[in-house]
Amino acid sequence: MRGRNDAGQSKRPIVLCCMMIVCLCLLFLYFSGSNGQAKSTALEYGTKFSRTLGWGSDDGEDGPEESIFGTGDADDIKPKSFPVCDDRHSELIPCLDRNLIYQMRLKLDLNLMEHYERHCPPPERRFNCLIPPPHGYKVPIKWPKSRDVVWKANIPHTHLAKEKSDQNWMVEAGEKIKFPGGGTHFHHGADKYISSIANMLNFKDNNINNEGMLRTVLDVGCGVASFGGYLLSSNVIAMSLAPNDVHQNQIQFALERGIPAYLGVLGTKRLPYPSRSFELAHCSRCRIDWLQRDGILLLELDRLLRPGGYFAYSSPEAYAQDEEDLRIWKEMSALVERMCWKIAEKRNQTVIWVKPLNNDCYRRRALGTKPPLCKSGDDPDSVWGVPMEACITPYPEQMHRDGGTGLVPWPARLTTPPPRLADLYVTADTFEKDTEMWQQRVENYWSLLGPKVKPDTIRNIMDMKANFGSFAAALKDKDVWVMNVVPHDGPSTLKIIYDRGLIGSNHDWCEAFSTYPRTYDLLHAWTVFSDLDKRGCSAEDLLLEMDRILRPTGFIIVRDKSIVIEFIKKYLHALHWEAITVVDAEPNPESEENEMILIIRKKLWLPEASSHDSTT
């Protein structure tokens, strides 16, 4: 027995060694085979590169030890040619993809609209392919004509034209779709409806901008955004908001028309906008139950409205006499009264409430009145993924004493240092220098774009890291609008952007943006990739996302370190992009490393075209 045991023990190391050698051989064969495998299919999820680096990684806040861009050597990364996604993904919105919800079996409360909120795919489920334009796609019609007409081939959906035919939302007209300017509540035109709201508020000359004091508007349940589109002629800019619901493509139509819009819903999370951002909120038959969950959705609007801000509500409850509408009106009136809102005017089918200018009314309420005031530790500007709360956001003490925002009228508001700079410990001098610096930078950008850009070439612009919004401010004389994106984990500068009379959203560039494919003419990425490097997210995934949201023939301006520029240049061919120019940026005394500017144009390619060099 003893001899046998000794022999067995002596054989075990040999067996283990053999097993290890076999495993190593199998691993070698697997990896060498995978390096030589055929090109990825159009439906493949993720990539080895993106799975290694992740796209939503929260690990390692201090960043990876090595740059995701390598060392800058020519052989660092071997770019690939990306497959084209299947046609059924031509309108893919990765974080608002209902197919993903079904596939991942997410347990969501439909009554709370959770299925219309953002649910992003994990890295291994992200599509590693280029989103194709629909068959017959054409370069979009230019602004301002686009407000009233678009190519049907670009958004081949006409169900809204049939469903809303009696409301003048949109009308089929051969190869085009026309927008007469109507809506569910304003069949005879948004312009007349807007003038009627201004008249109800006794604004001079029935002009909704109130001599420059009303500038930013939130239009909830906006449809195809004709309300926001017709506000623009009055120097008023609206964030037109709607979910990707049964009226699919309404936000896609809005952006195709050149009207500012965003895919979002009043559900369980705060909207990605800071507190006290809008002078007016608007809901025209938006089918929202404002009484649910102790009025939490109405309280979210309250958070977003400035002191003295208005809520214009056009809905059956405001005028109908049946029992159910009367009940809703009674309960809603009681709720807004407890919120210290007052009726500014009620006429025909519309009621307009006004929010108080200071905290006096809140302080006079009886103890225990609901909704309560939010806790003192609540940050009303913390919004990314933050649940709504059924509480009233009181004004900061300074704003309470001032009895308002202290903002000057538009257009002086654009360049005047706003009072909330003090919240960020930023001086007026720093703000003014930033404005001047970006004015010079934007002038340089346009000189580099040169003959490629005509006055009507660009309409929809996204500044992917907007800081104080000075890039957008420098474009004030051009017929464009800018979606100013502020990183969710940085300083709360988005409120400064709104205080300048501009609009924007918080976002995390480790995830996809809430918009349809092909919705922006120009993307400006200032150190966005360098910031991504610090978090260890995938730069390749970001390039694919930028390609998704950029229109064919659109432009990208990348301002970043040289290693980033060299990294992106390796992907130009694979993405069907072409470099317009690469130059050294102006010296920046605040930066340790000099920046470079890369200007790119996306080629127009169609699914049926076999060549990467389709007509541009």
UniProtKB/TrEMBL annotation:
Gene Ontology BP, a term: methylation
Membrane-crossing segments per the record: 12-31
Family that this chain belongs to: Belongs to the methyltransferase superfamily.
Species name: Panicum miliaceum
Subcellular location, principal: Golgi
Protein name per its UniProtKB record: Methyltransferase
Pfam families xrefs: Methyltransf_29 (PF03141)
Keyword Endoplasmic reticulum: no
EC number in record: 2.1.1.-
Cellular component aspect of the GO annotation: endosome; Golgi membrane; trans-Golgi network
MF-aspect GO terms: methyltransferase activity
